[in-house]
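Practice problem: predict the structure.
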Amino acid sequence: MRDRSRRSVKSRMVGMAAAVALAVLTYTDNDHPAATDHAVDTALAASAREPAGPDVAPAPSTPQTPPAAVLGASRPTRLTIPAIGVDTAGLIDLGLRADHTMEVPADAETVGWYTHSPTPGERGPALLAAHVDWQGRLGVFHGLRKLTPGDHVTVERADGSAVSFTVRRVEQHPKDRFPTQAVYGHVESPELRLVTCGGQFDREAGSYRDNIVVYAQMTGSPHPG
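Answer:
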């Protein structure tokens, strides 16, 4: 059963990478005061149609410390990041749009779980996304870039468990050089990716030029929420 579960999770991650690849948060940022009604930024969408190989290597700088446990699937329901004052419940599901870009939350306060990724606590990289700002309001991930290695992230799940993660690194990348393999690639332990927009705001395109990506690894044993 363990081998079957491992193959199932790996298959989901391969399909995820093939389906969306660089499409994370390539949306138009109508949240910025200077933004107007522009089309969705699809500069990265072409790469989303590239097939992925059966094993995408994890980022070499991600420590692969064996986790205390690997959990079964259970939707995330609450996210807490004390270092930047995040404590938000009511996480939503994010799928794919028709143009193969990822859906995004419709307001500043909501965090979304990308449903083509594992749930937090399962083997592999779970992905949560939110706005840096939205329609003149600070987004829940506005402070994401301020996280540092060692900061703690807790995700509560629908099954009543709470999973603890420790930040390993924080990166900023131009959207046309999004680190697809590092974000979506297969890893043996439960990990977490937190993604938002960042960098300079492109007034002509109506979107931010970069993505902020936080990499965190599950640490410690799951505990009741």
